[in-house]
């Protein structure tokens, strides 16, 4: 893989530029990240499955991309999965995987509820694989998702090493726990893009909204 594609993602600024970058990458995305040893979708899905009943609970795959995270959720036993992403080209690929009930396009500058046209409180579980990180969404998305979730709902997500070294991302989880907004259920560091030396690892978290 040409690492310049990943470098471009990690340096993109704003939702519109990010959308363009992912649209341009959509056709090669799966092959490229697989070649880099991308295992975060499985790690996040397996972690979430420890804290909800996969066969019964509906999960929202926020930032689903081409659907690699949806496949991982299906492999972990999840039967009812909706997805959303800001790239229509990636959603087109996700649709062909036939693992999602519904797919939604997120428009830049919309809140999660506005983007989906539904209430996030209807989801007892939300998955955000590789989303709350540099190269995807700003750190503010974590707080936005948490604030719009139902009490007792679970959020499973990852933060990559590049972002954990950034003071805007690094304290997110601790701050939400210290303020009593969330309870930490799971935290484990492991491989992310194992063959990409600039961002080889990530930490997977599962939190529960307090309320």
pLDDT averaged over residues: 88
CATH architect. name = 3-Layer(aba) Sandwich
Summarize the amount of helix as a percent range.
25-40%
Helix-strand topology string: HHHEHEHEHEHEHHEE
The unreliable regions are: none
- Per DSSP E runs of 2 or more residues, the count of β-strands stands at 7
Order of strands across the main sheet: 3-2-1-4-5-7-6
Layout of secondary structure:
Blueprint: H1 4-10, H2 14-35, H3 40-49, E1 58-62, H4 68-75, E2 80-85, H5 88-96, E3 103-105, H6 112-116, E4 125-128, H7 140-148, E5 154-160, H8 161-164, H9 172-178, E6 182-191, E7 201-209
Parallel strand pairs: 1-2, 1-4, 2-3, 4-5
Antiparallel strand pairs: 5-7, 6-7
Which terms summarize this structure?
alpha/beta; Rossmann fold; 9 helices; 38% helix
Describe this structure in words.
By secondary structure, the chain is α/β, with parallel strands linked by helices. The protein has one domain: Vaccinia Virus protein VP39 (Rossmann fold). The chain has helices at 4-10, 14-35, 40-49, 68-75, 88-96, 112-116, 140-148, 161-164, 172-178, and strands at residues 58-62, 80-85, 103-105, 125-128, 154-160, 182-191, 201-209. A seven-stranded mixed beta sheet has the order 3-2-1-4-5-7-6, sandwiched between helices. β4 (125-128), α7 (140-148) and β5 form a beta-alpha-beta unit. The relative contact order is 0.17. The model has no long low-confidence stretch (mean pLDDT 88).
């Amino acid at each position: 893989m040409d690492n310049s594609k990943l470098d471009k993602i990690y340096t993109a600024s704003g939702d519109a530029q990010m959308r363009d970058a992912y649209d341009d990458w959509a056709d090669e995305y799966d092959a490229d990240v697989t070649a880099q040893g991308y295992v975060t979708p499985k790690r996040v899905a397996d972690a979430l499955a420890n804290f909800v009943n996969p066969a019964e609970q509906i999960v929202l795959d926020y930032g689903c991309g081409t659907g690699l995270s949806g496949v991982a959720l299906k492999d972990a036993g999840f039967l009812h999965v909706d997805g959303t992403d800001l790239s229509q080209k990636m959603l087109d690929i996700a649709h062909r995987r036939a693992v999602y009930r519904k797919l939604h396009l997120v428009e830049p500058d919309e809140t999660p509820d506005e983007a989906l046209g539904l209430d996030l409180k209807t989801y007892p579980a939300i998955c955000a694989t590789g989303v709350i990180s540099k190269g995807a969404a700003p750190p503010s998305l974590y707080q936005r998702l948490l604030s719009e979730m139902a009490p007792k709902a679970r959020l499973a997500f990852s933060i990559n090493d590049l972002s954990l070294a950034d003071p805007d991302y690094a304290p997110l989880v601790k701050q939400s726990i210290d303020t009593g907004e969330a309870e930490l259920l799971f935290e484990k560091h492991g491989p992310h893009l194992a063959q990409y030396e600039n961002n080889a690892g990530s930490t997977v978290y599962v939190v529960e909204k307090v309320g």
